[in-house]
Amino acid sequence: MRDRRPPAAASTVPLPQRLRTEIERAGYYPAFVEDVVATAVAGEEVVAHLVHPETTFDSTEVRRHVTVLVVTPTRLIAAHADDHGPDESSPTVYASASTEAVPLDRVTSVVLSHVVADPARHRPGDAARELTLTLGWGSVQHIDLEPAGCSDPQCEADHGYTGTMAGDDISVRVSAGAEGTDAVAGALEFARVLSSMTRPA
């Protein structure tokens, strides 16, 4: 008779030690973040990863965040966790996390912006001072509109609107000054791996 028992939970498969170490080093509720990421990875091989902690400040509070990006042979996984102060839903500090698993063939753009110091003295292979990695897969679309015009400066006709639409599902900025040169090198390697795995066959 066919065994109808459900398979063992994939989330029990531990993440690679290097990824676990970087989640631990980020210092943001590592046990919680590791559980969330492991559930999304679901036992697949981790080909590349990027862990990016960030602290933001506003006029009333300091908030911490962490973003974990993972590439498996079939998917890009984006996990993001935030902490929250006490509010009407909780009398104590709490954290929330969300994950999105995107098939690699749905990743439409891998944009990497480089900033270098003293570009005249830059040599091939020199590290960037800052990298911004922006990934798009069509989940979020930004539309920028502005009034359309024509070349006649005297024209008062209504030409409607013109605009551009761009995908910007997630963006991570890594700075050598804030996170160190190893973090910049890690972001560069992650972008290189993801770009190679999402290029057309």
Written overview of the protein:
The chain has helices at 17-26, 30-41, 176-179, 181-198, and strands at residues 48-57, 62-71, 75-84, 94-103, 109-115, 130-136, 141-147, 161-167, 170-175. It has 201 residues and is α+β, with helices and mostly antiparallel strands. The strands form 3 sheets. Strands 1-2-3-4 form a 4-stranded antiparallel sheet. A 3-stranded antiparallel sheet has the order 5-6-9. A two-stranded antiparallel sheet has the order 7-8. The longest helix has 18 residues, at 181-198. It starts with 16 loop residues before the first helix and ends with a helix. The model is unreliable at 140-145 and 163-167 (pLDDT under 50).
Q: Summarize the main sheet.
A: 4 strands, antiparallel
> What is the oligomer described by this structure?
single chain
Q: In order across it, which strands form the biggest sheet?
A: 1-2-3-4
Helix content: 10-25%
Range of strand content: 35-45%
Q: Which stretches of 5+ consecutive residues score pLDDT under 50?
A: 140-145, 163-167
Q: What is the typical, i.e. mean, pLDDT?
A: 83
* Global outline: globular
Q: How do the helices and strands follow one another from N- to C-terminus? A: HHEEEEEEEEEHH
Radius of gyration: 21 Å
Q: How many DSSP helices?
A: 4
| Total number of beta strands | 9
N/C terminus separation: 43 Å
Going by helix content, strand content and strand pairing, the class is alpha+beta
